[in-house]
Design goal:
The protein is an alpha/beta fold and 558 residues long. It is 43% helix and 24% strand. It contains 19 helices and 20 strands. It has an 8-stranded mixed β-barrel with strand order 12-13-15-16-17-18-19-20, surrounded by 5 helices. Strand 17, helix 15 (469-472) and strand 18 form a beta-alpha-beta unit. The longest helix has 26 residues, at 112-137. The relative contact order is 0.06. The structure holds ligand C2E and calcium ion (CA) (2 copies). One calcium ion is lined by residues 340, 398, 430, 460.
């Protein structure tokens, strides 16, 4: 009487997880081990009765019966049950049908508990594997894939030789910080979650999205769907249900670097290229969606190399200073009244100008070391002048705004000054203008610290940013340096610049500060500046930046 179910017993599982695609592991474990266990225990069928309590979709709840195992027919386990979300309070009763008629083993039959225990163990093992899987391959916050899973996914496509049918995208949410500030961190997390899952649903089976951490995501998607995907991303709104019951629609602004995968690219090349393009998309003056181009990589590699080399440049004494004279024009002609130290990088016989490496050092933070190093070179030069009996001039060095918030700044400066026994009245520090209110406050204490040491402060590049005359009065400093861009057009007959600059000069002077114009190249500029009360200039007209040796010969003889 094969197939006759002569007895039944059941176990109850309180929780069947919901998330489909991670569950393949549970099925695998069951498929592999359950038939064996079932045979040994004469189990011929397993039914599951699923109970779900009521929820919004199904207010009455569900009771549903599913055949999980039909020994002789399928020889395997139906995975349907494991795809079932019972919801909170729901459970699944699993009913084992046992064949008592086939070559009985009474002892075993009596131990139904052993079967249920084995089933539990199997289930627990599967669940453990599932959570391991979850940890390894999914992103905890959003439940979508993580980078490991994305690479796994891409590797499968790669092995099938189908990668060139796809595009990759590196996505960053531009206004995530704003969302966190507006709605709070918790809502921000929900936003990220919805954003991720909306894209995941949009992509469906045509690709994969992973979260790389923070508000960065990686996507691979069939090329034929890519254009529409970008359009979709452009318009993406996310609805948020606020704790107060309000519903808010947030327009997510994404920055995307994207790349059409070529023959021969591996998964790492493909994602790497889109992330390079994304860096370009992050630059302020670039569009939000940027397609990868080959030159971007060359430039990126060059930057990476430079970044590494700058650190070594300091250790290898490859940084040197050039010195540019400043002239007093308040009397007749020009009289040397100071100098500015400008850093240069002597690398493999070539002299690299600061525009090529200061921005990089500024970004990776090495700028603070560079600045102190330059300052030390200045102190060393002043000491040498003193030792040689020359009459020195005041020398300014440039310091990044990063130093404004550095508590040990003054101590570091003092240590260097003491080491070279420099008379601090020959020192000046230039800091670039900024109208950030926080920065202005920081600048105040910065100035106090410098003045305690007897060092002067100058605001550099004035007029190059969002200058407003009103702001000058809030700016602490001894000197204000007018940027080349605003004095370029003075004194050449064009009245607009003249009126503006003459007002700025008057204002600065009335506030009791000194004013210097930089980048002065023409005599007519000097005439104008002098007539309008600007007493100092710096620029090619009077002298270019030169080596300290040249500077000494030309300006400090005797
Ligand atoms: P900056 O502080 O505004 O320096 C003036 C720049 O204008 C210098 O370029 C100088 O060579 C150039 N210049 C001077 N007179 C003229 C002129 O008449 N015509 C023209 N066309 N240019 C003139 P440089 O030396 O290439 O320095 C560029 C920038 O690099 C500096 O601008 C400064 O912002 C930065 N920098 C240089 N050294 C340091 C340093 O030690 N630390 C930091 N943080 N930045 C530095
Ligand atoms: Ca400067
Ligand atoms: Ca400047």
């Amino acid at each position: 009487m094969e197939g006759f179910i002569s007895d039944e017993f059941s176990v109850i599982l309180n929780q069947i997880p919901e998330n489909d695609y991670e569950l393949e592991h549970i099925f695998q474990v069951f498929k592999q081990y359950f038939p064996m266990m079932a045979r040994r225990n004469k189990i011929v069928s397993v039914r599951a009765i699923i109970f779900s309590p009521g929820n919004r979709v199904n207010p009455k709840g569900i009771k549903q019966e599913v055949n999980l195992y039909e020994g002789r027919k399928t020889g395997g386990v139906s995975d349907e049950i494991f795809r079932y979300d019972t919801g909170i309070g729901g459970y699944v009763e699993i009913i084992f049908g046992i064949d008592k008629c086939e070559g009985q083993d009474a002892a075993l039959m009596g131990e139904l508990g052993a079967v249920s225990k084995a089933f539990y163990l199997l289930y627990e093992r599967a669940m453990a594997m599932n959570s391991l899987y979850r940890l390894t391959f999914t992103d905890g916050l959003t439940g979508i894939a993580n980078d490991t899973q994305l690479f796994r996914y891409m590797n499968t496509i790669y092995s099938a030789g189908r990668l060139p049918e796809y595009c990759t995208d590196f996505i960053n949410i531009k206004n995530m910080k704003l969302a966190n500030e507006m709605f709070g961190q918790e809502m921000g997390d929900i936003l990220l979650n919805k954003f991720a899952n909306t894209i995941k649903n949009y992509i469906g089976d045509d690709g994969c999205i992973a979260r790389f951490g923070g508000d960065n995501f990686g996507v691979i998607i069939l090329e034929k769907r890519h254009r529409k995907f970008l359009n979709f991303m452009k318009k993406l709104d996310i609805c948020l249900d606020m704790p107060d019951g309000q519903r808010v629609t947030y327009k997510v602004e994404a920055r995307i670097g994207y790349y059409k995968i070529k023959e021969g690219d591996g998964p790492h090349d493909a994602l790497g290229n889109s992330s390079i393009a994304a860096r370009y998309a992050k630059r302020d003056d670039n569009p939000d969606f940027v397609r990868y181009e080959e030159h971007m990589k060359t430039q990126m590699l060059k930057m990476k190399q430079l970044e590494q080399d700058i650190g070594e440049a300091i250790n290898n004494n490859e940084l040197i200073i050039f010195v540019q004279p400043k002239a007093d024009i308040s009397g007749d002609g020009y009289r040397i009244c100071g100098a500015e130290a400008l850093v240069r990088w002597k690398k493999d016989g070539r002299i690299i100008p600061p525009v090529e490496f200061i921005p990089i050092a500024e970004k990776n933070g090495l700028i603070t070391q560079v600045d102190f190093y330059v300052f030390e070179l200045v102190c060393r030069m002043l000491k040498k002048w003193k030792d040689e009996g020359r009459t020195p001039v005041r020398v300014s060095s440039n310091f990044s705004r990063r130093h404004l918030r550095d508590d040990s700044f003054a101590d570091n400066i003092k240590e260097i000054v003491d080491r070279y026994e420099v008379d601090t009245s020959y020192l000046e520090i230039e800091i670039t203008e900024s109208y950030d209110m926080d920065d202005m406050e920081a600048l105040e204490s910065f100035e106090k610290n410098l003045h305690k040491l007897g060092i002067q402060l100058s605001i550099d590049d004035f007029g190059s940013g969002f200058s407003s005359l009103k702001m000058i009065k809030n700016m602490v400093s001894d000197t204000i340096k007018l940027d080349k861009s605003i004095i370029d057009g003075v004194g050449d007959g064009n009245e607009g610049d003249d009126i503006m600059v003459s007002h700025i000069i008057q204002m600065i002077k009335r506030l009791g500060k000194d004013v210097i114009a930089e980048g002065v190249e023409y005599k007519h500029q000097v005439d104008f500046l002098k007539a309008n009360g600007c007493g100092m200039i710096q620029g090619y007209l009077f002298g270019k930046p030169m080596t300290p040796d040249e500077f000494e010969k030309e300006y400090l003889e005797g």
